[in-house]
């Protein structure tokens, strides 16, 4: 029997999409969260010195996968969450990567040590960066006229969309006043029983 062990810090960030996929698929896995203090020792046991990694083992061997989006795609493929045709698949990848690019900007700001500079960059992010991308996504969904972000079937990109917006807490409400299609898409996935259940049972972390 295949066993999965997801290794990450006690945070949502780059592991939460993977956890959403496991939750949606109803697949058992070990959600292993390491303490920051353990990281220097653990780092050298990972493929590229970064987390998350997914350890996949059966009776014969154990392998490790790195890169959060690659792990997400591997699992999405396994649990039929990649889309039903080439265009849906490409769109699911495109959207997930675009969301990840925006989050990269957000994480860089959050990691800024200088508090004044961080506050300034955060203001810019919420005033310029996020509105720009939010309106781009909204325009794309208006043109697509599909039920889900990548087409007419639910893909891992729909889960990524919810994980993305959850980074911004209550601030997302202001965006959803203008981005009404995005709001519907977000709420549809956010209200799925498996996602509601996961959100209720997961450890409390800031992001
Ligand atoms: N592109 C990689 C980025 C991985 C990454 O930067 N992980 C951070 C945590 S979110 C990390 O391992 N930081 C610790 C370190 O660099 O030592 C992915 O998506 O998995």
Automatic annotation (TrEMBL):
Catalytic activity: RX + glutathione = an S-substituted glutathione + a halide anion + H(+)
InterPro entries: Glutathione-S-Trfase_C-like, Glutathione-S-Trfase_C_sf, Glutathione_S-Trfase, Glutathione_S-Trfase_N, GST_C, GST_superfamily, Thioredoxin-like_sf
This protein's record includes keyword Aminoacyl-tRNA synthetase: no
GO molecular function: glutathione transferase activity
Enzyme class: transferase
UniProt keyword Transferase, yes or no: yes
Gene3D superfamilies: 1.20.1050.10, Glutaredoxin
One annotated GO biological process: glutathione metabolic process
Keywords assigned: Transferase
Name of the molecule in the record: glutathione transferase
Taxonomic classification: Eukaryota, Metazoa, Spiralia, Gnathifera, Rotifera
